[in-house]
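User: Show me sequence and structure for the first protein, then do the same for the second.

Assistant: Starting with the first protein.
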Amino acid sequence: MAAAPTVSKRKSKQAKTAPRPPANHLKFWGVRGSIPTPGPTTVRYGGNTSCVEVRADGEIIILDGGTGLRPLGRHLVQEFNGNPLKLTLLLTHTHWDHIQGLPFFLPFYEPQNHLRILGYEGARRGLEHVLNSQMESPFFPIELPQVPANIEIEELKEMQFEVGKIHVEACLANHPGVCVGYRLFTSGGSVAFFPDNEPHYGHSHGRPEPGAGENTLLELARNEDKRMMEFARGCDVLIMDAQYERGEYEARRGWGHACMDDVINFALEAKVKRLFLFHHDPEHDDARIEKMVAQGRKLIAGKKGKLRLEAAREGATVPLTVA
């Protein structure tokens, strides 16, 4: 049986001497899709599942709660050293690789902390039921309602809301079940986050109207892709599912994840400034991801684009500053 996390107050020498990040920034704590992939071949880009921290305008916002949430929690407890934490966790959806870090999030186990968990239904019995279920016996020794921290779970109904001074908008993604992407408008620029998404024209995961013909379905798919493009248009940082190379995608069409080429074309057309490939395939090692980045940059150069392309890397910090 899994043991409940323990909170350590000790600070390492490395933490004391580490340079302070810029006031407004994001940091990748988990970039992998589907399942954690620890090991010597994933050291550079990391093996933890989806989790990104955004610090801006006095807020700490966490995007998704995959296994990357565990090292983030350890870092926050060490950094704040007993002082109260006020955190907001935005969940894109409740597939396991986006919530499996919650039971091991150390701030849950300190009573002075306040955590607000926001997301959409994603299941017939509601968001709170899904999050509670994965920590019920026999899956985990401590149930979510029993943790000492002050936790508020809110199932969102609107697609626009505020987190402090940060305006947040949500957009339905194309992925099995209810899944969204978020765009955060901060004083240092905007960040769009779509960790799980497949272009509609590749395969639509929505339910078509009965009797809809092929041409109608294609037009609907194109309109949905245009809607998402307008949502992301001009953003400073786009973090987006780009799990597959072209050949891989053709054999996995309909799985709910994207081909890198399509994501780059999307970002170019939406005039995004910086794109981070995300949701790295469990079978892709560091060398394979490096190869994809090189291919992607070649594609951008061939289109004479100015898009900055990188693969999301666990531990990397990205400053948020208006150019």
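Switching to the second protein now.
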Amino acid sequence: MTTRFAEPMARLIEELRKLPGIGTKSAQRLAFHVLRSPAEDATALADAIREVKKHLRLCSVCNNITDVDPCSYCTAPTRNVRLICVVEEPTNIATIEKTRSFNGLYHVLHGTLSPIGGVGPEQLRIANLLTRLPDVDEVILATSPTTEGEATAVYLANEIHKLKLGLRLTRIATGVPAGSDIEYADEVTMTRAMEGRREF
């Protein structure tokens, strides 16, 4: 017998289920937590969600999530503008920044190539990367060492080589375990991966 909830609760559960990693049971637990919380907590959560959607955007240069455009990385005077690290997601930037060993700029693809998932080059933010390259000395491909991450790195390498710009193209070392996501790499592992990058 299927449990029936009041319509507002059923709607909240359904919306929460749309979040990544949240199944029906987790969505129900979260919905009941919201219900039991003080009204001001629920309002604060709703306001925070609205503020994110209203004020955050993608940086017009690197595609990082930001509230100012260009973002703070792209405008920082201390960063090396001739070095670009290409990552899959904005969360990967935080992992690299924790190492304190990289002072270049970033470029966020917002995903990886995945033919099975219907993600081709046109779904990724590659075009504005290629327009940035004439003023760059090195591009570091820091996609995760998964099948999709490797395929994306190979595709990007081919596209960059076609431009014949003579820049240095490197790939992060396998201090990051094969098949894992760099978002979960610790600082030491990520530092070794950056320091041990190889020509690509």
